[in-house]
Amino acid sequence: ETGMVTIDPGYKNTGSCESAVTFLDGEKGILRYRGYSIEELAEKADFLEVAYLLIFGELPNKAQLAKFHSDIKEESQVDEEMKKILDGFPKSAHPMGVLSSLTSALVAFNPTSVDVSSETAMYNSIVRILAKFPVLVAWTLRKKKGLPLDYGDDSLGYVENIHKMMFKRPNQEYKKDPIAIDALDKLLILHADHEQNCSTSTVRIVGSSHAGLFASLSAGISALWGPLHGGANQAVLEMLEAIEADGGDTKKYMAKAKDKDDPFRLMGFGHRVYKNFDPRAKIIKKAADDVLGNLGIQDPILDIAKGLEKEALEDPYFVDRKLYPNVDFYSGIIYRALGIPTEMFTVMFALGRLPGWIAQWREMRLRKEPIGRPRQVYIGENLRSFVPLEKR
Ligand code: SDX
């Protein structure tokens, strides 16, 4: 029986599916969504366009994009009862736990049948979650800050509206902030999909049991929360702040990262697939300079990050293991400049990854993939007889 299977911990050499959504080449540092390079999309597209591209496979024309956005606006109300669930959390609750719970709770307020009975049913579920998820994200931020919850404004663009729901101050007119909105749009595009990463594989495997879209996404949010995955963007900022508090002693942290007896890792470095620069990290690093420059912010944390990167890129331990900065290394610096609390960084990653999760879930269901159910190699006890309690 055990001859049948080979174990592949972490599925390092296992392909779980065929997919047409995202292509990445780890050696060359290439990332494309539906054939379009991430560099072009980050430069020339906006996040809603990229969401449409990832999910439906083509860039939308004007009419398709307008209809997509208006369909989303139609669905942007979140049932007031959902606020009772949010209120049930202590302020100290981590936003990723709140977001995962609220996403799962959405099922109770949107009891659609299993979302693939028809293209229309699936489209409606997709539009519904693209509309409501940003509201839930904004609510988790405002709860954390003790601010009244806010609803969107249909006159705004998709990302503008997200920015408004997150940052509009009570009893003040919302002031559009083009620099912040452009930075946010670009960051969301750069996070939108990444083939079969841990959280996307989670969304696929939960969906493969024919659990609904919202339930599958809720599971994906939990997987993303881990510090080895999306949670790394929060861990990077905590690491950089610790280095700053230590007088900028990057050498101490580099030594810790190399010490096998020390569980500490250089957060924001390394990647399962990229054995060269993560193309997203390159774009985000440049965007960090631009955004901080445009906002007139001098952040010593950015200088520490650059110093750490420079040292690591010259250190044999990291060079030999092909460890380069990944998407999480610089993103937190921009989030911080935009006034987003560190604990919310991974929520922002989830907001960006939402279209990718949806696209991969939809593809998995349309291709009628079988339920995910791997085997194992059994290493436990052989058959043995029961011992009554009095004899143990
Ligand atoms: C994301 O998969 C995706 O696509 C994910 C993602 C996406 O868009 O969905 O790109 C987003 O999750 C980016 C990664 C964010 N995580 C971090 O920044 C956390 C720190 N990085 C690592 O823990 C690690 O690099 C991983 C988790 C990213 C990858 O781990 P692997 O592929 O399982 O590699 P490994 O743990 O086997 O490491 C190989 C070697 C080991 O040393 P040796 O045993 O060979 O001596 O490299 C070392 C590791 O100890 N190593 C590190 C390190 N990362 C790997 N040593 C110090 N610091 C690090 N960051």
UniProtKB/TrEMBL annotation:
<dbReference type="InterPro" id="IPR002020">
    <property type="entry name" value="Citrate_synthase"/>
</dbReference>
<dbReference type="InterPro" id="IPR010953">
    <property type="entry name" value="Citrate_synthase_typ-I"/>
</dbReference>
<keyword id="KW-0808">Transferase</keyword>
<keyword id="KW-0816">Tricarboxylic acid cycle</keyword>
<keyword id="KW-0012">Acyltransferase</keyword>
<dbReference type="InterPro" id="IPR036969">
    <property type="entry name" value="Citrate_synthase_sf"/>
</dbReference>
<dbReference type="GO" id="GO:0006099">
    <property type="term" value="P:tricarboxylic acid cycle"/>
</dbReference>
<feature type="active site">
    <location>
        <position position="328"/>
    </location>
</feature>
<dbReference type="GO" id="GO:0005737">
    <property type="term" value="C:cytoplasm"/>
</dbReference>
<comment type="pathway">
    <text>Carbohydrate metabolism; tricarboxylic acid cycle; isocitrate from oxaloacetate: step 1/2.</text>
</comment>
<dbReference type="InterPro" id="IPR024176">
    <property type="entry name" value="Citrate_synthase_bac-typ"/>
</dbReference>
<protein>
    <recommendedName>
        <fullName>Citrate synthase</fullName>
    </recommendedName>
</protein>
<feature type="active site">
    <location>
        <position position="271"/>
    </location>
</feature>
<dbReference type="GO" id="GO:0036440">
    <property type="term" value="F:citrate synthase activity"/>
</dbReference>
<dbReference type="InterPro" id="IPR016142">
    <property type="entry name" value="Citrate_synth-like_lrg_a-sub"/>
</dbReference>
<dbReference type="Pfam" id="PF00285">
    <property type="entry name" value="Citrate_synt"/>
</dbReference>
<dbReference type="InterPro" id="IPR019810">
    <property type="entry name" value="Citrate_synthase_AS"/>
</dbReference>
<comment type="similarity">
    <text>Belongs to the citrate synthase family.</text>
</comment>
<dbReference type="InterPro" id="IPR016143">
    <property type="entry name" value="Citrate_synth-like_sm_a-sub"/>
</dbReference>
